[in-house]
Amino acid sequence: MPKAERKILLAEDDLSLGELLKNYLEMNDLEVDWYKNGIEAFKGFSKNKYDLCLLDVMMPEMNGFELANEIKQINDNVPFLFLTAKSLREDILTGYKCGADDYILKPFDSELLIFKINAILKRASNAPQPPLSEEFKIGKYTLLANLRLLKGPRGEQKLSPKETDLLGLLCQYKNNVLPRDLALKNIWGNDDYFNGRSMDVYITKIRKYLKEDPSIEIINLHGKGYRFNVS
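RE: above sequence
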C-alpha cells in the first residue's frame, strides 16, 4: 500500500465503528490517529499536525461541537466534518456554525465518506491564501494581511485565516459591493446555504472589530452581497 500522504484525526467513542473507520480510511491511503473521547482528541491535536478532523458529535467528556471550538482556537484553518446520528436541523446548523466543512448522518455509505473527505482535502489544498505582503488602510484601522493583524484605536486584534481573507476581500471591494457567491467560493470553496450562514457569523465578528470607527459600515444587500463603506 502506498505511503499515506494525509493525516486524519478521528474522534469516535463507539469502539466497533471507530475501529472499522480507522481500518477503512487506512485502506484508502490515509494515516489515521483514532481517539475515543473529546479530551483525548484535543490533547492529540495539540501535539500533532492533521490535514482533517473527523469528529463524532455525541462523545463523553467533550462532545464534537465543543471539541471543534477548542481545535479552532489552535488552528482555525484545519478542515473538519461531523459524524452523527443527530438529524435535527438545529444540530446541523450548530455544526456549520462551528465552521464544519461537512456533516454526515449515521448510518452512512463508506464510499461517500471517502469521496467527501477527498473533496474537502482537495479544496483545502487549493484554498486561496491571504495576501502575503498586503497592507490595507481602513479608516482608523490598518489590516496587515501577512501577519493576520488588525491595528486600531484600542490596540491590535489577531485575526483567524478566514477573518483575514474575508476582510481582505472587503477591502479590495471598498465602497463597492462584494458579491456573496464570490466571497463564498473564494474562502469557503462553495456557496451553499450552510457556508453562507457561516460567513454571516464572520461578518458579525468583523463588524465588532471595526466598531470604534463610525465612518465604517458593512451593509448586507440581500441576495447580492456586502457593501463595505469607508468614508
